Amino acid sequence: MVNRKDLNPEASPRAAYGARVRSAREARNWIQDDLAELVGYSGRHISAIETGRKPPTLQFSRSLDTTLGLSGTAESFERAWSEIRQGSLLEGFPEYLIYEARAAEIRLFEVGLIPGLLQTKEYAQALADAHVRRGTLTPEQADERVALLMERQAALVRPLPPLVIAVLDESCIRRPIGGAAVMDAQLARLVEFAEQPNTMLQIAPYSIGEHRPFNRAVNLLTLPDRSVFSYVESQTEGHLDRALTSVLPLVRAYHQLQAVSLSQAASVDMIHQLRKGTL
Q1: Least confident of 43-47, 121-125, 152-156, 180-184
Q2: Given a cut of 90, is residue 175 above it in pLDDT?
Q3: 3-class secondary structure, 208
Q4: How far apart are CA 202 and CA 68, in angstroms?
Q5: Where in the chain is the domain with CATH 1.10.260.40?
Q6: pLDDT at res. 204
Q7: CA 125 to CA 97: how far, in whole Å?
Q8: What share of the chain in percent tops pLDDT 70?
Q9: 13-86, what's its fold?
C-alpha cells in the first residue's frame, strides 16, 4: 500500500493502541474511511490515531468498542485508553479516583498549589506545560492530565453532590502560577467555590507556624457507607489507605488544622485583599 507507515507497538502504550486499531480494521478488510464512517470520525482522524500522531479519547474508544463489539470486555479500547491515561499519573491515584467519584464527603489539604478539584483549566494547563518544559511529561500526557482533571470536576456535579472541605496553606494563594491573569481568575474561582452550599474553604495562614499538622497534600474521603479513606502523595508515588488505625489519626489532625485555620469568611476576605494587592 502506498504511503503505509510501519508501526511499532512496542514504542509506547499509544503506539500499541494505534497498532491495534489498524490490525482490527485490516482484519475486517476496511480502509480507514470505512472505519471512520462507522465510528463517526474522519479518515484523517483514524490515520492520526493509528500512527500515534493524535491521542485517543474516551469517546473515540467507546465508539470503537461499539463498532467492533468489544464494549465491556477485557480487550476493549476503553480499557486501553484508561491504561494510556493512567500512565501519566502517580501509582495509587487511579484507584483513589474511583472512590473520589463515589464519596459523600471530600476533605482536602494542600501546600503550595491549589488542589486539582478547585483548579481552573488555565491554572491546570500552566502546571502541565511546566512539566513538559522540564521533560517530566510529554505534551500528550500533559493534555491527558488536564482532560482528566476536568472529568474529575465534572463528576462531582450530580443531584446529591459531595460535601467538599478544602483547607489551603496560605502559600497556595500566594504562589503565582501561569501569570497574573491566570492567577486572578484562579483566586476568583476559590471565592465562587466558597459560595456553594456544599463546600467549605479555609486558609491556614503562615501565622499558625508549627501548629500546622501536615507538610504535604492530604485527601480524606468519606463514602456513603461512612467508611473513610486517606490518600497522601510524595514526589514519586501516592498511597491510598483504608485502615482505620492509620486513617483516623489523619482525620483528627485535619480537625485540629481546621480549628487553627481562618474561618471561611476571613479566608475569602484574605483572597479579596490579595486580588486587590492590599495584602
Answers
A1: 152-156
A2: yes
A3: helix
A4: 50
A5: 13-86
A6: 98
A7: 20
A8: 92
A9: 434 Repressor (Amino-terminal Domain) (1.10.260)
**What fold characterizes domain 93-276?**
Endonuclease; Chain A (3.30.870)
Q: What is the pLDDT of residues 65-82, one digit of tens each?
A: 999 999 888 788 887 777
Helix, strand, or coil here: 150? helix
Query: Quick one: cell of 173?
Result: 494563594
Domain with CATH 3.30.870 in the chain: 93-276
Q: Which of 117-126, 142-151, 215-224 has the lowest mean pLDDT?
A: 142-151
Q: CB neighbours (10 Å) of residue 34? A: 13
Sign of CA dihedral 246, 252, 253, 257: positive
User: Strands across the sheet with 105-110, in order?
Assistant: 199-204, 163-169, 105-110, 218-222, 228-233, 238-241
pTM, entire model: 0.70
Distances (CA, A) of 185 to 228, 237, 252: 33, 30, 33
Query: What are the φ and ψ backbone dihedral angles of 176, each rounded to 5 degrees?
Result: -75, 125
Taking the C-alpha atoms of residue 41 and residue 33, their distance in angstroms, rounded to an integer, is 9
Q: How many CB atoms lie within 10 A of CB 11?
A: 12
**Residue 7 pLDDT > 80, yes or no?**
no
Q: DSSP state, 206? A: G
Evaluate whether 214 touches 111 at the Cβ level (below 8 Å): yes
Relative orientation angle of helices 139-155 and 121-134, to the nearest 10 degrees = 150
> Looking at residue 126, what is its pLDDT?
97
